[in-house]
Amino acid sequence: MTRVKKKWSRETDCSVFERGRKRQVIVTLEPGGVIGFRLKGTRKTYCLTTARCHMMALSASIMQEKKEKSKRKINAKRGITF
């Protein structure tokens, strides 16, 4: 695995509607395990550590699994199967 030694930015396919127009999301990897997010054409960067990003992804995955399990329980009570 290659270590990040300098800032490395890439424009994503994802766009966000902000201030009346669509803007692309720019992701920047920085040394020290920091990930920065900003909208194209803006200066404000929002940073997270890679550990925090991992925890957020993990909790989102767990919440999704709980939601799906809940739906299956509700459908089973109603007699609906997929």
Outline of this structure?
The chain is α+β, with helices and mostly antiparallel strands. It is built from one helix and four strands; from the N terminus they run E-E-E-E-H. Strand 1 (8-18) and strand 2 (21-30) form a beta hairpin.
Structural overview:
This protein is an alpha+beta fold. The chain has one domain. 35% of the residues lie in helices and 38% in strands. The protein has one helix and four strands. It has a four-stranded antiparallel sheet with strand order 1-2-3-4. The longest helix has 29 residues. It is elongated, with a radius of gyration of 19 Å. The chain starts with 7 loop residues before the first strand and ends with a helix.
The domain count comes to 1
Radius of gyration: 19 Å
Biggest sheet character: 4 strands, antiparallel
Tally the beta strands: 4
Number of helices: 1
Point out poorly predicted stretches: none
The termini sit apart by 42 Å
Mean pLDDT: 92
Topology of this protein?
Elements: E1 8-18, E2 21-30, E3 34-39, E4 46-49, H1 50-78
Antiparallel strand pairs: 1-2, 2-3, 3-4
Features:
alpha+beta; 82 residues; 35% helix; single chain; 4-stranded antiparallel β-sheet
